[in-house]
Amino acid sequence: PLDRLQDPTLFKTDAFIAGDWVAGNSRFPVHDPATGHKLADVANLGPAETQAAIAAANAAWPAWKARTAKERSIVLRRWFDLLMAHQEDLARLMTAEQGKPLAESRGEVAYGASFVEWFAEEAKRINGEALPQFDNNRRLLVLKQPIGVCAAITPWNFPLAMITRKVAPALAAGCPVIIKPAELTPLTALAAAELALRAGIPAGVLNVITADAEQSIAVGKALCASDVVRHLSFTGSTEVGRILMAQCAPTVKKLSLELGGNAPFIVFDDADIDSAVEGAFASKYRNAGQTCVCSNRLYVQAGVYDEFVTKFAAKVRTAKVGNGFDDGVNQGPLIEEAALVKVQRHVDDALAKGGRVLVGGKRLPGLFFEPTVVADASADMLCAREETFGPFAPVFKFETEQEAIACANATEFGLASYFYSRDVGRIFRVGEALEYGMVGINVGILATEHVPFGGVKQSGLGREGSHFGIDDYVEIKYLCLGDI
Ligand code: ADP
């Protein structure tokens, strides 16, 4: 699929440090999950190159932070324009290495680029404050200054957007960045780096360290241990988030963590059922269920349970599974074998504990899994506790609003949640009671660049996107001026 790129020079396989493409001493393969074909052999770097990237970023920092906000804004805006000008090629690279349908990849390129556009604008609004003095001989000021060299470790499910929503605010604030993209999807990241270079982002301000699974651990250790790196932003599993947090303790690094979710999707008796069916479908099966905000547990009130389940199952039967490059496909492959094993384990467990399969339930050849709906789900099932991260929707029945809230909150996670209701009192009560960083009410999709994305409890720390998204990349400094 990659010989049809409009600009073949976007197909990069070397890492990017200090403005140079770095081949490294070894390579690792990247595969197309839809076909199993090898797409590329990518530079496999380790701790030594990571130190070089940290040094390059640190060296580039003074000149980058000395630029005016408007100058940084102009460079970011140029990067945004280039990302959008190459939307089609970036989408092809993404579908090839990640598997999501081409239309979804185009959407992700636009979504990913939108963070660059947004933070190009926000770069000009990182305002300090003048505080009222406690003594008329003094003046009290608050400055916001760039935190320093930042590291970003990103996952494979959004190969572009998870990078831009960390890198764009960092660059806007005046910080250089070292990106360690997921080993399964480095090609999109490298193409974005090539476009950053063309946009005029100076050497050393944006670096990409590619590494396989094993070397990623060593690269991560080097980034965490460095006292030059002042901030680490990570999106991925809660398990790895905990490891990185512990590794950052000795250098007391500022952390932004966007970890696992276990999103509830609640349908009350008073909901518009057709709308809830559409919302549940979009929320559950987007990216084949492989997003941290995908609904994981569907809770439906007894009065509309049968109607919802029947209509939802009918909707899911219309899903077309296949290679993301093929027309009409709206569910691609899962990313790797381990992902299929987990989905099958959750489905089998649900069936063994009394679940009733309405659609799907099985693997298909290759890395594909049938979009699956299981009714009569119960709290003792694995899918009630763990994030499935695949195309499996268990549907639970509940009686009261209190019960729905209690079930929804019975998890250590707190990223996205959703509910459908037409009752304004209930909308406020439930919206306030859900222990989640994000609540979608009568919607199944809620992310966009100018809202704060993030979780509570063990789903993470900090917010990405929106004007809050700059906060993690600046330090607040208090100046107390006397003798006025
Ligand atoms: P996912 O569940 O999305 O596969 P992971 O948390 O395993 O997420 O991986 C997300 C990112 O974290 C990837 O870039 C991966 O290479 C990296 N990673 C995984 N384990 C470690 C580790 N121990 N140290 C540093 N990075 C890691």
TrEMBL record:
This is Succinate-semialdehyde dehydrogenase (NADP(+)). GO terms for biological process: gamma-aminobutyric acid catabolic process. The active site is at 258. Residues 21-478 form the Aldehyde dehydrogenase domain. It comes from Malikia spinosa. The keyword Oxidoreductase applies. GO terms for molecular function: succinate-semialdehyde dehydrogenase (NAD+) activity. Belongs to the aldehyde dehydrogenase family.
